[in-house]
Design brief:
The complex is a heterodimer. By secondary structure, chain A is an alpha+beta fold. Chain A has 4 helices and 6 strands. Chain A has a single domain, classed as Chemotaxis protein chec (3-Layer(aba) Sandwich), CATH 3.40.1550. In chain A, strands 1, 2, 3, 4, 5 and 6 form a 6-stranded antiparallel sheet that branches. In chain A, helix 1 crosses helix 4 and helix 2 crosses helix 4. By secondary structure, chain B is α/β, with parallel strands linked by helices. Chain B has a single domain, classed as Rossmann fold. Chain B has 5 helices and 5 strands, in the order βαβαβαβαβα. The radius of gyration of chain B is 16 Å and the shape is globular. The chains are: A alpha+beta, B alpha/beta. Chains A and B meet through helix 1, helix 2 and helix 4 of A and helix 1 and helix 4 of B.
Chain lengths: 161, 138
């Protein structure tokens, strides 16, 4: 699957962002991990999501994009990306998760007409452990839950109004 | 026979591995791959080694990809070596900046090995010779 560029979307048309965000992450998984994410058929619990990768956005769009999952899912993503077994991913799994988040953020902003040049991305950060609160001073959130090998992956874009 | 020497510049070791894997899968004949984590490391690598192709990220610490490409003009070992940018920064403005700085190609992340080949192959083809001005006949 080649990354597609949707019809122009204004940075203000945030009601259209959810499908774009979903497409952005799907393309990253299909192209870089050679697999698809599935849409869950029932609500999933939020517990146990102890691995978070974050990329900041600054400029015309300010906020953060996060991907949360459990540690086993994180290791599974990294091993798929690296083409190794789960144990073989080692410390590089944090790098892999950060790059996935970075590519999703970049792919998303490239699909919003006029945003590519006006929005910068930070270097990715990965947090492990679930016992923390993130206060990003945001006012809008676009959020979706998808399944990677049956386990939840929560993708969230939190932005300033 | 594999004979191509490539330099991959990216601050992510995972991305360097993926780009290398894509290059090797592309069937372009990769003999040797050098790696660098930023523009400064890449310039140092080029002082000691000759390469045929450079694949370079844009957003990197210490020295970013655009600055690195601009500085290549002053590196003897890099004269005429094609540079292909591989980056998440896929906007038209970034592409124009990269090509103006001296890059010959541009690949957006995420990418497939086929896309790497598709973008690298044309830049490896020798450039047509520039026509020399005709000497006036006396």
């Amino acid at each position: 699957m080649k990354p597609s560029h949707l019809a122009p979307h204004s940075a203000r048309g945030r009601e259209h962002w959810l499908p774009i965000l979903q497409q952005a992450i799907q393309e990253v998984f299909e192209l870089m991990l050679a697999c698809s994410l599935e849409v869950p058929t029932q609500p999933l619990p939020n517990q146990g999501l102890d691995t978070t990768s974050i990329v900041g956005l600054a400029g015309e769009l300010c906020g953060i994009l996060t991907i949360r999952c459990n540690a086993r899912t994180a290791a599974g993503m990294a091993s798929r990306m690296l083409g190794t077994d789960m144990e073989g991913a080692g410390p590089e799994k944090w790098d892999a998760l950060g790059e996935i988040c970075n590519m999703v953020a970049g792919n998303f902003k490239n699909k919003i007409a006029g945003l590519g040049d006006g929005c910068m991305l930070s270097a990715p950060t990965v947090i492990t452990g679930a016992d923390y609160s993130l206060h990003a001073m945001i006012s809008d959130e676009v959020r979706t839950v998808l399944l990677f090998e049956g386990e939840p992956v929560v993708l969230s874009l939190e932005v300033h109004r | 026979m594999d004979k191509l020497r490539a330099l991959i510049v990216d601050d992510s070791s995972v991305m360097r591995k993926i780009v290398e894997r894509s290059l090797r899968q592309s069937g372009l004949g990769i003999a040797q791959v050098f790696e660098a984590g930023n523009g400064v490391e890449a310039l140092a690598t080029l002082q000691k080694n000759q390469v045929d192709l450079i694949l370079c990220d844009i957003n990197m610490p210490v020295m970013d990809g655009l600055e690195f490409v601009k500085r290549l003009a002053g590196v003897e070992n890099a004269k005429g070596v094609p540079v292909v940018m591989i980056t998440t920064e896929g906007s038209e403005g970034h592409v124009v900046k990269a090509l103006s700085a001296g890059a010959r190609g541009y690949i957006r992340k995420p990418f497939t090995p086929e896309q790497v080949k598709e973008h690298v192959l044309p830049v490896l083809e020798p450039k047509p010779l520039e026509p020399k001005p005709l000497e006036p006949k006396l």
